[in-house]
């Protein structure tokens, strides 16, 4: 579908964990299970990229609610991030995802797109 309309990038898969049931974007996320989410992420990325479209893993990270998402700070310690939130992103890396998009919210007080710990150490430092 994306390739057919001339798009180079699909803003998918949505790798947020559906932690808040009434979350406005939970319907397009990978669900609430980190293990199942990782398997779904890899399959979706492979499918998208097999059609000559770049998959974009979003939203990195902790984007669990729509209300005040541009100003709220989601707080999670390192263990929680690695055990619950990061498995799908690791699967995306392993599947060769073409790009990542950071989320609008703050993570532990710093905007996700400016967060040294989550972007540079956790994401870029992953092997």
Question: Which secondary structure elements does this structure contain, and how are they paired or packed?
Answer:
Elements: E1 9-10, H1 34-49, E2 54-60, E3 73-74, H2 78-85, H3 87-94, E4 99-102, E5 106-107, E6 110-111, H4 116-123
Parallel strand pairs: 1-2, 2-4, 3-5
Antiparallel strand pairs: 5-6
Helix pairs in contact: 1-3
Describe this structure in words.
31% of the residues lie in helices and 15% in strands. By secondary structure, the chain is α/β, with parallel strands linked by helices. The chain has a 3-stranded parallel β-sheet with strand order 1-2-4, covered by helices on one side.
Categorize the overall geometry: globular
Number of strands: 6
Rg, alpha carbons: 14 Å
Strand ordering within the main sheet = 1-2-4
Q: Give the count of helical stretches.
A: 4
Oligomer state equals single chain
Portion in strands: 5-15%
Uncertain stretches of 5 or more adjacent residues: none
Characterize the largest beta sheet: strand count, sense, and whether it forms a barrel: 3 strands, parallel
The topology string of helices and strands comes to EHEEHHEEEH
Helix content: 25-40%
Separation of termini? 32 Å
Key traits:
single chain, alpha/beta, three-stranded parallel β-sheet, globular, 127 residues, three-stranded mixed β-sheet
In short:
The chain is of the alpha/beta class. The chain contains four helices and six strands; from the N terminus they run βαββααβββα.
């Amino acid at each position: 579908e994306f390739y057919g309309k001339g798009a180079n990038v699909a803003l998918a898969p949505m790798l947020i964990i559906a932690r808040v049931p009434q979350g406005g974007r939970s319907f397009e996320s990978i669900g609430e299970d980190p293990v199942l989410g990782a398997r779904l992420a890899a399959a979706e990325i492979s499918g998208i990229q097999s059609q000559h479209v770049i998959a974009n893993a979003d939203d990195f990270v902790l984007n669990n609610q729509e209300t005040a998402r541009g100003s709220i700070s989601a707080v999670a310690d390192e263990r929680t991030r690695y055990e619950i939130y990061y498995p799908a992103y690791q699967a995306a890396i392993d599947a060769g995802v073409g790009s990542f998009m950071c989320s609008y919210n703050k993570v532990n007080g710093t905007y996700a797109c400016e967060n040294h710990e989550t972007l540079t150490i956790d994401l870029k430092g992953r092997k």
